[in-house]
Amino acid sequence: MLPQSVLSFWETIRTGNEGPELLLDPNLKLWALIPISIVMILVGVAKQCIMVLVSPKSKTVPRVKLTEILYIAKARALMGNSSNLSTESFKMRQEYLAQVLADGKYLAIKPAKDEKTAMENPFTSPGMTDAMTSMALGNLVNYIPQTVIMWWVNYFFAGFVLMKLPFPLTIRFKQMLQSSVRTDDLDVRWVSSMSWYIISMGGLTPVYNVLFGGNRLSKLNVSAQQQQLSQSPGGPNPKDQMKALANDITVFQHISVLDNIEDRVLKLYS
Question: Over the stretch 221-266, which tens digit does the pLDDT of each residue have?
């Protein structure tokens, strides 16, 4: 039978405790943990609604411009995913896209108009102005609520220990999880109120994605901004892009994973 001190020592090592065990008041969950979480969710909902209200209205893209953008993207996608095509399929697409892009068949703007607008100031275009205004409003909407909530948590819940994580952590996480709690011998798994707020800032992103479809909405916003930048004066010239892509596709070295796949399969299972 081992002494009690030895048993306690091995129990400490097994559980991963680095300090004294705490007994938390159950009311902390009702008056600190849950309110902080609810306020974070409500503020995220409010920020999303404000962003929808202040964001500029999406402009419709003409069909010829959309065709131009899609053919440029198609050429890049062909070179990026060429290994998934057979040699015959790649050569067929290579010859077609190289000829179409070199001739500029699907250019939305005539070369004369491109040469005229190339010397204009890009910061005076409506598309660039809308993009910069939307970016500034987005930063403002994100900065003000975070400052207010951080002051609220720091003022009313400073020094509170709210919960204990069920898995062990190294000592490097102590500064991140125990902000505003000045205790050196406390177990790393204990989480303070300020740290819970910081963790919730990134941890609630999947919740916002479920509520608002955040991934799909962000992709649409990025695509809209790219289209505005491509339409603005001083942006990349579609004619030059198509000529460069035509040259790249012409000299592209194609290596397919489907070449001689029948012989390789028969050799593998024969």
Answer: 554 455 554 554 455 788 888 999 999 999 998 888 887 888 888 8
Least Cα distance to 73 among 245, 254, 256 occurs for 245
Answer yes or no: are the C-beta atoms of 79 and 118 closer than 8 Å: no
Scan for tokens 């250019």, then name that residue: 107
Q: What is the rounded distance in angstroms from the CA atom of residue 253 to the CA atom of residue 270?
A: 32
What is the rounded CA–CA span in Å between residue 72 and residue 154? 51
What's the predicted TM-score (pTM) here? 0.53
DSSP one-letter string for 51-93 = HHHHSPPPPPPPHHHHHHHHHHHHHHHHHHTGGGS-HHHHHHH
How many other C-beta atoms are found inside a 10 Å radius of the C-beta of residue 90?
Answer: 22
CB contact at 8 A, 63 and 218: no
CA angle 144, 148, 150 (to 5 degrees): 115
Q: What is the DSSP letter of 1?
A: -
Q: If you ran DSSP here, which 8-state letter would residue 173 be given?
A: G
